[in-house]
Amino acid sequence: MSQSLSESLKSLASPIINQIYNDDFIQSMLDGSTPKGSIEHYLRADHQYLNEFAKIYALLVPKAHTNEEMNFLLSQIDFVINGEVDAHYFLSEYVGKSYEDIIKGHHHWYPSADHYVKHMYYQVNMREDIAYTVAAMCPCPYVYQQLALKMKEHHSLESNHPMLKWIDFYVEGMDELLEYLFNWIDQSAEMMSQDEVEDVKMNFLQSCEHERKFFNMSYQQEDWMWNNDEQ
Ligand SMILES: Cc1ncc(CN)c(N)n1
User: Fold this and answer.
1) Domain Thiaminase-2/PQQC: where (predicted)?
2) Which of 46, 70, 91, 94 has the fewest CB atoms within 10 Å, i.e. is most exposed?
């Protein structure tokens, strides 16, 4: 029996996730050496990213076919805005500043975050079928869940490890969400041509690479050359 599209996506994403795991951001989280400035950069970018992610979920509501799909989207808007902020509070504890102080006054999207967000907005605005956007959004929970599982699997983290609460947040809370998203992709793929399926794959894999760029952007505190007014 041939592999489902979602199974194919997961195996294609695996080498990218391994690269992210071995990059500086995750490796420094594990050894507790992440520069506080890199975490602050991440939090400023991610606060905006999650707000845009919620707005893109909202733009999917008119494309939903059932009340059940609409309720899923509403629940995810609530989670992204009001639930995932807990993961940010765990990281602001590491920095030693209040989350509100870290993110206040920050308005522009850093370059790699800009590219990632616009990749998702392009799908929701230019593609009729919801699957193209869902495929571009799915790596957001999927990559983090896989990274967190690898971090726990390969390291016996002390109970006072500074990143343990952040890691556990993504180990525990993603299964039901991911099952829904991947089923949505598989169901849509049944009515697609091979070319359309290839486009769905590209959207998913590009977002996996955008995840890698987002972490590297944070570690290197990447910004635009024109912006020189931020701490
Ligand atoms: C950029 C990004 N990607 C994924 C996640 C995890 N939902 C996040 N908070 N930020």
Assistant:
1) 14-220
2) 70
